[in-house]
Write a structure and sequence with these properties.
With 399 residues, the protein is of the alpha/beta class. The protein has two domains: 239 residues, Ribonuclease Z/Hydroxyacylglutathione hydrolase-like (Metallo-beta-lactamase, Chain A, 4-Layer Sandwich); 146 residues, Flavodoxin domain (Rossmann fold, 3-Layer(aba) Sandwich). The protein contains twelve helices and 22 strands. The strands form five sheets. The chain has a seven-stranded mixed beta sheet. Strands 17, 18, 19, 20, 21 and 22 form a six-stranded mixed beta sheet that branches. A hairpin with a 3-residue loop joins strand 7 and strand 8. Helix 5 packs across helix 9 and helix 8 crosses helix 12. The chain is elongated and about 75 Å long. Bound molecules: flavin mononucleotide (FMN) and fe (ii) ion (2 copies). One fe (ii) ion binds next to loops.
Length: 399
């Protein structure tokens, strides 16, 4: 068997990107990223999803290595973000007669981004295209991650091409299907990918889940990361929990500190959380850890503690950024606490509490806080322990 064949007539032809430093010019890619693209061969041939522009020639060569001198009859576009659509115009120089298939919003973007007006086929929700031996069915799943997003399903193969949904950062290391590889490194990257890229669209992901609930699924072919076969249940459960903003037991302590006072409070809180039996306690100094990693764990865990010194009458800037990112994604259902240090006019805790108001669990009437004037005293540290105890109790009662 060709190792790129996922199952009869379905082939992987995607590419790895190990050179882009920041995905979307924002998110570091220490493990690279894959842009997944698939050939589906019936009597006719479809290419499902495309790749980023710099990978265009590689994609064309991969396609040729599978189908020889034939051309794909169709290019199915599940998602128009340029990490999946960038190669379209180059591909058309190789395969000029290939029909581009998308819904009305997709085709509007195809015209607008790429100036393409011919060979377009518009599909609506639940429409099908018969390849001869394999029927492609399309379901619209708007806002997972853009408004034109859709998924493609092949009933004969119980295979779902899910676009960004169920994807993760991390290039593929030779193997494609989860059963053939060690998937351990992909799961932390799935939290980071979901929280940063899709995190705002939890409701849309939930709607997409109900849109595919009637489908029998044996293989999930996402647009990034491994093809899921053995670990579909685990992947569904992660995406399901994250999109409902339900955390696992554990606490993120994210703080900023210029001169160590807020940092000392963070340490005291983390030590007490740990001695209360909470195993997953993650301290982050926001000036040194990239925000994407902090956000990944904030989405993962149900406890959230944020610390900031008062800085020029407001928040320490990276903390302000972090909270803006949390709010932008509509994070909720968290047991939240805040702390900070000031010298002449306390502002940080007050500001954080009002910004984080909507993130807390609705059954908690306020956010626990400690604020220290100057360096923390023994009584400040005792207040930090008390805060950690209260947080631990509320966290435990949630599970
Ligand atoms: C650049 C700068 C701006 C500050 N602005 C304020 C302020 O507006 N109000 C205030 O009460 N303290 C202000 N402070 C004092 C700090 O909040 C205080 O020293 C605090 O203990 C610092 O915490 P840290 O050691 O965790 O950085 C400022 C300190 C610095 C260095
Ligand atoms: Fe996307
Ligand atoms: Fe993508």
């Amino acid at each position: 068997m060709n190792f790129k064949e996922i199952k009869d007539g379905i082939y992987y032809v995607g590419t790895n990107d190990f050179t882009t430093k920041l995905f979307e010019a924002l998110w570091p890619l220490p493990l690279g990223i894959s842009y997944n693209s698939y050939i589906v061969k019936g009597e006719k041939i479809a290419l499902v999803d495309c790749v980023e522009i710099s990978q265009s020639n590689k994609l064309a060569n991969n396609v040729k290595s599978i189908i020889g001198v034939r051309h794909p009859d169709y290019l199915i576009i599940n998602h128009m973000e340029p990490d999946h659509s960038g190669a379209i115009n180059v591909l058309r120089t190789y395969f000029p007669d290939m029909k581009i298939v998308g819904n009305a919003i997709t085709l509007d973007m195809v015209r607008g981004f790429y100036g393409i007006y011919d060979n377009l086929i518009e599909v609506s929700d639940n429409d099908t295209i018969d390849l001869g031996g394999k029927i492609l069915r399309f379901r619209l799943t708007p806002m997972v991650h853009w408004p034109e997003t859709m998924i493609t399903y092949i009933e004969e193969d119980r295979t779902l091409f899910s676009g960004d949904a169920f994807g993760c950062f991390g290039a593929l290391n030779g193997g494609i299907v989860d059963a053939d590889i060690n998937t351990t490194p992909y799961f932390p990257e799935m939290y980071r990918y979901y929280s940063n890229i899709i995190g705002k669209y939890g409701k849309a992901v939930q709607r997409a889940f109900s849109k595919i609930s009637d489908l029998e699924i044996e293989y999930i072919c996402p647009a990034h990361g491994p093809v899921w076969y053995e670990e579909i249940d685990r992947v569904f459960s992660i995406y399901n929990r994250l999109s409902r903003y339900i955390g696992e037991p554990g606490v993120v302590v994210a703080y900023g500190s210029m001169y160590g006072n807020t940092a000392a409070m963070a340490d005291a809180i983390a030590i007490r959380l740990s001695s209360n039996g909470i195993k997953d306690v993650k301290i982050y100094n926001v000036s040194y850890s990239h925000q994407s990693y902090i956000l990944g764990d904030i989405f993962r865990y149900s406890g959230l503690v944020i610390g900031s010194p008062t800085y020029s009458g407001g928040l320490f800037p990276p903390i302000e950024n972090l909270i803006a990112a949390i709010k932008n994604r509509g994070l909720c259902n968290r047991v939240v606490a805040t702390f900070g240090s000031f010298s002449w006019g306390a502002q940080a805790v007050k500001t954080m509490n009002s910004m984080l108001e909507n993130c807390r669990l609705l059954n908690l009437d306020n956010i626990s806080s400690v604020e220290s004037k100057h360096a923390p005293t023994p009584s400040t540290i005792a207040a930090c322990y008390h805060l950690a105890d209260r947080l631990s109790r509320n966290l435990v009662s949630e599970f």
